[in-house]
Structure formats: structure tokens, C-alpha cells
Design goal:
Length: 625
């Protein structure tokens, strides 16, 4: 096997050119086999096999710096840098990450996980190279989906001022996760079809190369006037007009042609963009036909592409999807917004039912938030459905454009808490902290699936900003018989006893219920409270608990600093309440990838660990009294 000859970075340079197609086939077979067992990002990686090979042939790692935007398409890069063995434990706790990680390899130049960042980081590398007098190539690989993000354009504007080589590789597969939308998508489509220019350029170059000396002089003159020639054949010339040399479009599955273009790109003493056309899911028919299903997949059957495992249970996302469609029929002033995540956030059904009230703004969370503010100011109630870790990007807009004006915008925050296999960049563990300190923002979290429905219904009828945060995965169905009507700012008393009280935030109610069960088994009385509202806090409930309880445990899947537990502790101090409050939350550190149950144990949020600490705290308290 050709793949067996790849043991470390740059080994691909010793592969016979005639064997490169075979190597590409073997890499695809390897990826399909491994990801069918572990799950992971398949379609995006199958689409960049030849592109990655050409990059590794044209450049030398780790001296040259490759920065992968988002980074979920870096699997072939990992194979070619000697990490093939790590795929058996891909995205498991302690195993290899599904994204570039500098601590994992010196060939990973920059940690990535969110989109539209690679050009900015690349410019930083270029300027550092200039300041330090170094000589190496810097290459930022960005997808057409990521070019819907505003940060990419800020970086392109900056890149146009560079006076030394910087290579931007635009991987154009017409998709992010869903199909791309907007003006840039249409523009790139026009470039793909501009074959007249590409063919003319190729024919002229071939003809002039037959005349040594004179041909070179003519080619140099043509290069000086190439912008005006391109204007005749290629619509817009957006990149050239910014001062960035444009090369392409290039067949992203032709290693020889890609290598030639990268060799040319290295000669240019300013920013150059290489436009590469690839096919997402290339080489595996199920992924080619349904790339969105194989963007991030669990284990699957290779022959059919069908997911393995038990029948899928209803998730929180499914419940949100059903609820928002019901509300769409009831409320004609309701609209929904997604940032290129219609499938992931459950908005695809709404899109089909109410296309005029569905808005996909591309990978542009900042714009999405302010766009929602404009809709709200104009008399529409918008619901922005977004992953917790991606909403971080719209923080200023939430403060300045939504909450400052107290506009009725609902934030449906999916993937809140620990999300598992995608790791540090995707864990949604900061939202309670960064949302709670914004004036006018209300923050809710449901204890189970049925309460999510009620909270979404409540939120879309509330006259101000409101966030509802819920986790990834199967919806908890326990304690469905407890369904007191939602009252603003009020928590829900599930069981009332004395001594020890456990307050659960959102989906951590399932863990809290197990904590109470174990404490009862140890003959402790235990009150169980569903917080419901993180902001505003139910101070009336807290004062009531303080009268009859000597110890309160607050459980949340959010960072401890600025979280609900800290807020409760602060309230008790301000009120001079003597009840001891213990917060159980995520410590001040990034949580790596792995199974959620494993991660909870590692950060101290599993029921067993919480019970042990509560019992120990109770023992110490009794000894002091």
C-alpha cells in the first residue's frame, strides 16, 4: 500500500508521481473505514484529499505554515503528518482531536474550530515572519462557506496591503454545512463558469513557451495588463480589484494542476488567492449525494451509509423544531434566523413550511443578531436559533443592538453545555455567564423536553430579549408530571424537605434528580428545585430555602466564573444568609473532546462526585456546629 509509506511529515514528497492517484484512493478508503466506526466529519474531508496532498507536495512542514479555517477538514493533513494511528481514537477523551491542535503536532500552525478566522491568523503569521526576518510560506485554507462570515472580509481588506507573499486557498465546494447563500455564493458560481478566461490563458501560455526569450517578454507584458484582460472574461474580479492576485478556478481533484498553481503562487510578492473547485463527499456516493448528513456523522454502515445504533430518540433540537413550526402557524409575526445551520438547529422544517419567514444569513452570527434587532424594531418577533459556542461571536451585538433597546428577540441556544466530541472550540459552557450580566436579557433553561416547548412558547410572547438554552442530544423525559405554568423569574419546587437543597439549572436536572436519589439512599432529607430562570434569579425561593436548609448545592453545566452558582453565593453574602452554598460547575479551564459522560466525570459534574462532596461538606459543617 502506498499509504504505508507515509509515516511523518513530508514523506509524500518521496512518493512516485504515478502513485499519487492510488494514494488518494487509499486515503479515502482509510477515512471512510475509520469514521464509519468512530464518527466524525466525513464529507468535508473526502472533498479535500487531493487538495491537501498538493499542499503537502508544494510546501514543507512544519517550516511552512498551513492554517485550516474551521479545521474539521484537516483529517488528510493529519494522515500526511504521521498521525494515522490516532484515528482509532479520533475525538475520544485523551485521543486525537478532530481539529488542528498546536499541542498535538508542530505541523498544526493554528488551533481552529469556528469559521472565517484563517485569513486573519495567516496575516498575523506573515507579519511575524517579516518582523523576525524569516523565510517561509504562509497558507490559509478557507472554504466558500466561511467567506459568508464578515471577519473574512475584514481580513481580505487587510491582506490587500501586504508586500510579501501570502497564499489564500479558497476551497469552493458550494457548501458550508447546508448550501451556501448570498451574493458571494452567486459570485463564485460565476467564476466557476468563467471557462473562457481560463482556457484562453492556458492556450496563450502554451503558445508563448514555444518562443524562448521573446515569449517570456510577451508573457511579462501580458502579466502587467492581465487585470484588464480578466475584466473582459471574468465577472466582477472582486479579489483583483482589492489588490489580491486571483488564480483559478482550478480543479481541486487534480494533484498535478494544483501543485503547478501553488508553485506559481509562491512567486507572488503580495497576497494571492487560489480558487479551487472541489466536491464535498468526493469518492463516497452516500456522502456525495447527501453531504449535509455526512458533515458530522456518528458511526455508520459503509455499504449503505445508514447510521448505526438504536432508533434515534427525540432530541431537544427535534422538540424545538416541532414547537417553532406550531408557533409559525399560530403567529404570523414570527420569523426565524439561522447562520448557515438550518439542519443542525432544527429550522429546516420551518423553512419548508414558511419560506418567506425563514432567513439564512450565512456564517455571520454578528449580522444575524443585529438583523434580528432590525426585524424586532420593525414589528416582527425573530427567533435566532444558534449553537451556544457560535453565539459568542455576536456578543457585542446582543448588548448594543438588542438589549440596549430592549427588543423582543428570542435566542434559541442549542448545544448548550458540554457537547462532547468536537472539543474545546464547541463546548457551550460560557453562555450563562456572558448572557446573565447583560441588562434586559432574560435567561431560561428547561429541565426536560416538555418544558422546552413551554419555554419557547413563553419566549416568543415576551416583549423583550429572552434566551432559552438547551443541550445537544436526547431530551430528558423524567419528571414530566411536574409542569407548573411558567411565571416570570420563578423557579419550580419539585420536592420540599429540609436540611440539604439541590438547585438544578436546565438539563442538569437529570443529574440533580440522581443526586437526590442517592442522598435519600444515604438517609438525608433533600429538597429538589428546578431553577428555570437563571436571570432573573428567584430570590424569593432562595430566601425561603435559607430558612430551612443549612446546605444548598447548585448544579450547572457552565463555567463556574460568572455562572448561576456564583450568583447565588453572591446573593447569600449580600443578604447575610448563613446557609452554605456550594456551586458545582465547570472549572476555569477548557474542556477537551470526549464522550459527555466521561467529561462530566472529569470536571466533577457526575452524580457520584457531587454526592461525595455534599456528604463531606455536610460532615464538616456538623463538626463545626
Amino acid at each position: 500500500m502506498v499509504l504505508e509509506r507515509i509515516q511523518k511529515a513530508n514523506d509524500i514528497k518521496r512518493i512516485d508521481p504515478e502513485d499519487l492517484d492510488l494514494l488518494a484512493d487509499e486515503i479515502r478508503e482509510f477515512l471512510i473505514e475509520k469514521i464509519s466506526r468512530t464518527g466524525g466529519h466525513l464529507a468535508s474531508n473526502l472533498g479535500v484529499v487531493e487538495l491537501t496532498m498538493a499542499l503537502h507536495l508544494a510546501f514543507r512542514l512544519p517550516n511552512d505554515k498551513m492554517i485550516w479555517d474551521v479545521g474539521h477538514q484537516s483529517y488528510t493533513h493529519k494522515i500526511l503528518t504521521g498521525r494515522k494511528a490516532g484515528f482509532d481514537e479520533l475525538r475520544t477523551y485523551g485521543g486525537m482531536s478532530g481539529f488542528p491542535k498546536r499541542k498535538e503536532s508542530s505541523c498544526d500552525a493554528f488551533d481552529t474550530g469556528h469559521s472565517s478566522t484563517s485569513i486573519s491568523a495567516g496575516i498575523g503569521y506573515v507579519k511575524a515572519r517579516e518582523l523576525l526576518g524569516q523565510k517561509h510560506s504562509v497558507i490559509s485554507i478557507i472554504g466558500d462557506g466561511s467567506l459568508t462570515g464578515g471577519m473574512a472580509y475584514e481580513a481580505l481588506n487587510n491582506a490587500s496591503q501586504l508586500k510579501s507573499n501570502f497564499i489564500i486557498v479558497l476551497n469552493d465546494n458550494r457548501m458550508s454545512i447546508s448550501e451556501n447563500v448570498g451574493g458571494m455564493s452567486r459570485y463564485l458560481n460565476s467564476l466557476r463558469t468563467a471557462g473562457a478566461y481560463t482556457e484562453l490563458k492556458r492556450q496563450i501560455e502554451q503558445a508563448l513557451h514555444k518562443f524562448p526569450g521573446a515569449g517570456d517578454r510577451v508573457m511579462n507584458q501580458l502579466r502587467k495588463t492581465k487585470s484588464s484582460i480578466k475584466q473582459l472574461f471574468v465577472p466582477g474580479m472582486f479579489f483583483e480589484d482589492m489588490g489580491i492576485t486571483y488564480l483559478g478556478p482550478v480543479d481541486g481533484h487534480n494533484v498535478k494542476e494544483l501543485y503547478r498553481v501553488f508553485y506559481e503562487a509562491k512567486k507572488i510578492n503580495h497576497a494571492v488567492l487560489v480558487h479551487v473547485i472541489t466536491k464535498k463527499g468526493m469518492g463516497y456516493l452516500p456522502a456525495e449525494e447527501h453531504p449535509e448528513k455526512f458533515h458530522g456523522t456518528g458511526p455508520f454502515e459503509i455499504v449503505t451509509g445508514k447510521a448505526l445504533g438504536d432508533k434515534k430518540e427525540e432530541s431537544y433540537t427535534d422538540i424545538f423544531s416541532r414547537t417553532i413550526c406550531e408557533l409559525g402557524r399560530e403567529k404570523k409575526d414570527l420569523a426565524v434566523i439561522t447562520a448557515a445551520m438550518a439542519d443542525g438547529t432544527g429550522l429546516s422544517a420551518f423553512q419548508k413550511a414558511f419560506p418567506d419567514r425563514f432567513f439564512d444569513v450565512g456564517i455571520a452570527e454578528q449580522h444575524a443578531v443585529t438583523f434580528a434587532a432590525g426585524l424586532a424594531a420593525g414589528g416582527i418577533h425573530p427567533v435566532f436559533a444558534v449553537y451556544s459556542s457560535f453565539l459568542q461571536r455576536g456578543y457585542d451585538q446582543m448588548i448594543h443592538d438588542v438589549c440596549l433597546q430592549n427588543l423582543p428577540v428570542t435566542f434559541a441556544i442549542d448545544r448548550a453545555g458540554l457537547v462532547g466530541s468536537d472539543g474545546e472550540t464547541h463546548q457551550g459552557v460560557f453562555d450563562l455567564s456572558y448572557l446573565s450580566h447583560i441588562p434586559n436579557m432574560t435567561v431560561m433553561a428547561p429541565k426536560n423536553g416538555s418544558e422546552l416547548t413551554e419555554m419557547i412558547r413563553y419566549a416568543v410572547n415576551y416583549p423583550g430579549p429572552m434566551a432559552v438554552r438547551y443541550p445537544r442530544g436526547t431530551a430528558y423525559g423524567g419528571y414530566a408530571e411536574y409542569h407548573e405554568p411558567i411565571a416570570y423569574g420563578k423557579s419550580e419546587m419539585i420536592t420540599e424537605e429540609k436540611g440539604i437543597a439541590v438547585i438544578a439549572v436546565g438539563h442538569m436536572f437529570e443529574v440533580a434528580a440522581e443526586v437526590r436519589k442517592q442522598l435519600k439512599g444515604l438517609r438525608y432529607d433533600c429538597t429538589l428545585v428546578n431553577a428555570r430562570f437563571v436571570k432573573p434569579m428567584d430570590t424569593e425561593m432562595l430566601r425561603k430555602l435559607a430558612k430551612t436548609h443549612h446546605l444548598i448545592a447548585v448544579i450547572e453545566e457552565n463555567v463556574r466564573i460568572g455562572g448561576f452558582g456564583e450568583q447565588v453565593q453572591s446573593f447569600f453574602k449580600e443578604e447575610n444568609l448563613e446557609t452554605e452554598v456550594h456551586g458545582f460547575a465547570i472549572p476555569d479551564e477548557y474542556v477537551e473532546h470526549g464522550n459527555v459522560s466521561v467529561l462530566r466525570k472529569e470536571v466533577g459534574l457526575c452524580a457520584d462526585t457531587i454526592v461525595e462532596q455534599i456528604v463531606e461538606a455536610d460532615r464538616k459543617q456538623r463538626e463545626r456546629s
